[in-house]
Amino acid sequence: MKYYIIAGEPSGDLHASNLMKSLKVEDPKFEFRFWGGDLMKEVGGDLVRHYSQTAYMGIKEVVSNLGKIKANFKLCKSDLLNYNPDVLILVDYPGFNLRMAEFAKKKSIKVFYYISPKIWAWNTGRVKKIKAYVDKMFTILPFETQFYQQYGVPIDYVGNPVLDAIDNRNNKGEDFNAFKERNGLDKRPVVGLLAGSRVQEIKYVLPEMVRMIDQFPDYQFVIAGAPSFTKADYQPFVAGKDVKIIFKQTYELLQQAQGALVTSGTATLETALLDCPQIVCYKMWGGKNFHRFIKRFVLKVEHISLVNLILNKEGVREMVQEELNFRDLKSELTKLLTDQDYRIRMFNNYNELHKIMGEPGTSSRAAKLMVQALNN
């Protein structure tokens, strides 16, 4: 069968690539054409557009790139029709993918959605579009499954692909000395900095993170380089600071780190499932008043991190907008690194999270269900 897959971010690239590997097992006659990244490209098939050319987030960035966004839509629509797949598989990335779902449905192309957009957090009205344009939703979080069931959306819960990615990670049994030697680190304990994969995230969040470096000289700080960036992209923010940048080793870094500062997103869940104590950090343009507006009129949930959403409580500290400041972050990081009671409470919350999340095998379950649905 012919699969057209659209992923617009690094996490989507990761999870789509694992799904593609499982689809190859379930369907020996597979053909892939996709929008995504390097991991999907490694699996095989034709890459139409890399996510580094499509990932725009935030009002300012979207407005300033409207021409490019329109051109991407035009290209995707014509390419989809020319390829004429058996199914369009959408991976998160709602601003783009929901419009492509509508287009595909009107052209009688079957639409599957793998990894739901976070409409339960921002815009619950979008569930009507999903019900109208998506043939089947494959969910990865228990609470979002319950959300869609309320609206009668055709749905299969398949577990979470982060579990697969972590289970299949490189250097799973590596100790600190081996990690240290491999990356040219010294013997000090490590603090990981996961500053996100978008330009505006490293612009607003990374500067707050690197201010901590001089305050904790007994620790070495290591940035997990996002695959969409190079070292040169980080240099304006880290010049003169005692910090290392390593790429393609996020899981290895979290496995060895004493703690981590993590931009909100899938990375918060990955950090928790690797049992690394964390502080969730997020900041965007707009300041305090904009944050209040978002909390009051836009955000539909109590928390911003997946860890806390799944636990339905504050299992990890979230510092957002004006809360992410030098004084409070230093205080919180001190507790994270040195307060054993604080750390034990977080590990207990992580144990609870592990029980809720279950076992690996998501990609395989999703692929089996997709192929079954296409053959029926």
Structure description:
51% of the residues lie in helices and 17% in strands. The protein is of the alpha/beta class. It has 2 domains: 2-166 and 360-375, Glycogen Phosphorylase B (Rossmann fold); 169-357, 3-Layer(aba) Sandwich (Rossmann fold). α15 (266-273) links the parallel β11 (259-263) and β12 (278-282). Mean pLDDT is 90; it is low at 296-301.
What structural class results from the helix and strand content? alpha/beta
Distance between the termini: 13 Å
Number of strands: 13
Overall pLDDT metric: 90
Q: Tell me the name of the CATH homologous superfamily of the largest domain.
A: Glycogen Phosphorylase B
Describe the strand arrangement of the main beta sheet, using strand numbers: 3-2-1-4-5-6-7
Q: Provide the helix percentage.
A: 40-55%
Shape verdict: globular
Describe the sheet with the most strands: 7 strands, parallel
CATH architecture of the largest domain: 3-Layer(aba) Sandwich
* CATH fold annotation of the largest domain: Rossmann fold
